[in-house]
Amino acid sequence: MADWLADAVLYQIYPQSFADSNGDGIGDLGGVESKLDYLAWLGVNTVWLNPCFASPMFDAGYDIADYFRVDPRYGSNDDLLKLVDSAGRHGIRVLLDFVPGHTSNEHPWFVASANDPDDHRYIWAAEQGPNFQPSPGSREGFYLPNYFPVQPALNFGYGRPNEAEPWRQPVDAEGPRANRQALRDIMDFWMGYGIAGFRVDMAPFLIKDDPGLVETSKLWRDLRAWIDRAHPGTVLLSEWNDPKLAVPAGFDADFFMHYGESRAFRSLFHNRAVYDMTWEDPRPAYFDAAGQGSIDVFLAEWATTAASIGDRGHIILPTANHDWPRLVAGSRTARHARSALVFLLTWPTLPAIYYGDEIGTQYQPGLPDHEGSLLQVFEDGFNRAGSRTPMQWDAADPEVTYLPANPSPTRPDVASQREDPGSNLNLVRELIALRKANPALGTRGGVSIVRAGYPFVYRRGEFTVVVNPALRSETVNVTAPGELVLGEGTGYDAAGLHVSGYGYGIYRA
């Protein structure tokens, strides 16, 4: 594991919505480069770019037609090299989003496979089974997509092959071997540009029907061993939602996520403002103003996971991402989100800030389906576009018009908040600086729980952190926490620790 990752503060950039350098209304790599001064000022030291490879954009770049070329709407390969070099001078590493499980149906690999019955880079069957799609070429039969029909699944084999079902090839068949080699070729190419690592999309799903993910884990361990030999210091972050499996499989860190079996992230933030998952999590989120949630669900899963992976890797706790509602959504306001930001930046996990969450950008409902943003996984659907709106740099209408901007005249923006010492932006900047200056507040320090409830109180070395997401005020009997370093709505006297609604504080003994 790369030592530098332990001190990383991740910042996820959706490039088409971040900053536009050429006036075409779409964010690009030049725009990202133009904002490196801002990111360095904020304290970010690691940037993760959503996919910027050549794509027909049926799924906003997660349908890749050429893994070795930057899509022209973002610039060129030279622009990416320039961005990486400039970021390095700002003390910022760059990670790319890697989509290994499927390509676009316009990728030359798939076009060739759809016209060659002897090509097994994709999963082909003679009969149309569940989810299989008709061949678009001269090849007879049907192919298996991963998500949208335009995303044919690459063939990495099946954990349980079956000769009676010839499309269920073993993992060491010719097609899967070619695809495993392609993973190395693609990573090797971009690491030659100085890329510090990759966030791997849907990492556990490459090999189909793989009980216990045994073969999947072996695939990633083999790739990890090659990376450590060829490009030591490179990091792999997984979209797996189970660090207990992802880290032993060779990933340096894995995300707690909104979806899947894990309830850790949902129990903190899922407020049902955008879609309802009551059938999986009947209790309200802990960071709801009503104060009826429980931090215990998160703590139990975090403790089990942290004990399992030890010092071999990290858990990443994001504010949000391009596939989920933002932290500020529905009834959760930017002011209410402040206690969550304090928690995220003082807990012994890697923090990942989704662009705009540092200023309290709201999830925007009512947008059109754009580049595959609408998912029908819930009864009323979920439009991911609401979390992909333009970064709000100042009070003017954003130049980036990939999606409509928030029309509210009171929408937050970077310029205004930089001038306001009490803004969310300056709070995040202070928290990052405090975390960097005090290893006890980062991944290397331990944590002890003082009180699990409202407020939530925990100690990190000489620091005591208190957060109260609830609207109601609370007074709790705890040992004198020391001097207030940073906070709002907290105080201590003979009666105990007083915390107002939405209050938070960081004390040093």
Short descriptors:
single chain, 509 residues, TIM Barrel, Immunoglobulin-like, 2 domains, eight-stranded parallel barrel, six-stranded antiparallel β-sheet, 13 helices
Q: Mind telling me which CATH architecture of the largest domain this is?
A: Alpha-Beta Barrel
Beta strand count: 21
The helicity comes to 10-25%
The number of helices is 13
Radius of gyration: 23 Å
Unreliable parts:
none
Question: Quick recap of the structure?
Answer:
By secondary structure, the protein is α/β, with parallel strands linked by helices. It contains 13 helices and 21 strands. Pfam families: Alpha-amylase.
Structure description:
- By secondary structure, this protein is α/β, with parallel strands linked by helices.
- It folds into 2 domains: 3-106 and 172-441, Alpha-Beta Barrel (TIM Barrel), CATH 3.20.20; 448-508, Immunoglobulin-like (Sandwich).
- 24% of the residues lie in helices and 18% in strands.
- The protein is built from 13 helices and 21 strands.
- It has an 8-stranded parallel beta barrel with strand order 1-2-5-9-10-11-12-13. Strands 16, 17, 18, 19, 20 and 21 form a 6-stranded antiparallel beta sheet that branches. A 3-stranded antiparallel beta sheet has the order 6-8-7, with no helix packed on it.
- β10 (235-238), α8 and β11 (253-255) form a beta-alpha-beta unit.
- The protein is globular, with a radius of gyration of 23 Å.
- The mean pLDDT is 95.
